[in-house]
Write a structure and sequence with these properties.
Number of helices: 9
Helix content: over 70%
Keywords: DNA-binding, Transcription, Transcription regulation
Shape: elongated
Oligomer: single chain
Number of domains: 2
Structural class: mainly alpha
Protein name: TetR/AcrR family transcriptional regulator
GO molecular function: DNA-binding transcription factor activity; transcription cis-regulatory region binding
Strand content: under 5%
Organism: Denitrobaculum tricleocarpae
InterPro entries: DNA-bd_HTH_TetR-type_CS, Homeodomain-like_sf, HTH-type_TetR-like_transc_reg, HTH_TetR, Tet_transcr_reg_TetR-rel_C_sf
Order of helices and strands: HHHHHHHHH
CATH topology of the largest domain: Tetracycline Repressor, domain 2
């Protein structure tokens, strides 16, 4: 019975630890987007969460590691989802439609997270090992497969990948800044159609 209680208390402690880490991550994410990374202090984050600085350091060695964890974990997860939704889809058009739908859905679920990823990707993405798949890699793979299968004309895959990403990312950026009121999921069919026209150009 003592072992059982010990295990139960340990499970609660582990759960509470995960919850605290998640609260730290969310507070930091919000502050990084609202104030900027450089302008956000550890004290800002701990005040937002309602914990001591020592409690934060039990989960993260510092602000840089916290920012990196936020970026790398979510950026890689995004790439994994874009790759996953292609599975079982027949041809370039269906795969692009699935990837655009996934992007729009994930953006609408957490615009703040996407704001952060867009904000820091230029500085942080270069730190990822070459073996790690990124969202850019996921789109490039789709483009290359489409060319090899004859679904779209041969072109520079890097240029086409950048062009397709630009279609969706520029709309997402406009949504973040309030220039577009619709959710991205409401525009997924239009965005897919534009991407397909770009690929066929």
């Amino acid at each position: 019975m003592i072992v059982y209680l010990h295990s139960e208390f340990r499970a609660v402690a582990l759960r509470d630890g995960r919850e605290t880490k998640e609260r730290i991550s969310r507070a930091a994410l919000t502050l990084f987007v609202q104030k900027g990374f450089a302008e956000t202090s550890i004290r800002d984050i701990t005040s937002a969460v309602g914990i001591t600085e020592g409690a934060l350091y039990r989960h993260f060695p510092g602000k840089d590691q916290l920012a990196w964890d936020l970026f790398s974990t979510n950026y890689i997860s995004f790439a994994t989802e874009l790759t996953r939704v292609r599975i079982g889809k027949s041809g370039f058009s269906e795969q692009v439609a699935a990837m655009v739908e996934a992007f729009c859905r994930l953006f609408d679920q957490d615009p703040e997270l996407f704001s952060y990823l867009l904000l820091v990707q230029h500085n942080e993405s270069g730190k990822l090992p070459d073996t790690i798949k990124t969202p850019v890699d996921a789109v490039r793979d789709c483009v290359i497969d489409g060319m090899e299968n004859g679904d779209i004309p041969k072109a520079d895959p890097e240029v086409l990948t950048a062009s397709l990403l630009g279609v969706v990312l520029q709309v997402a950026t406009a949504r973040i800044y309030g220039r577009i009121e619709k959710g991205l999921s409401e525009m997924k069919d239009d965005l897919t159609a534009i991407c397909l026209r770009v690929a066929q150009a």
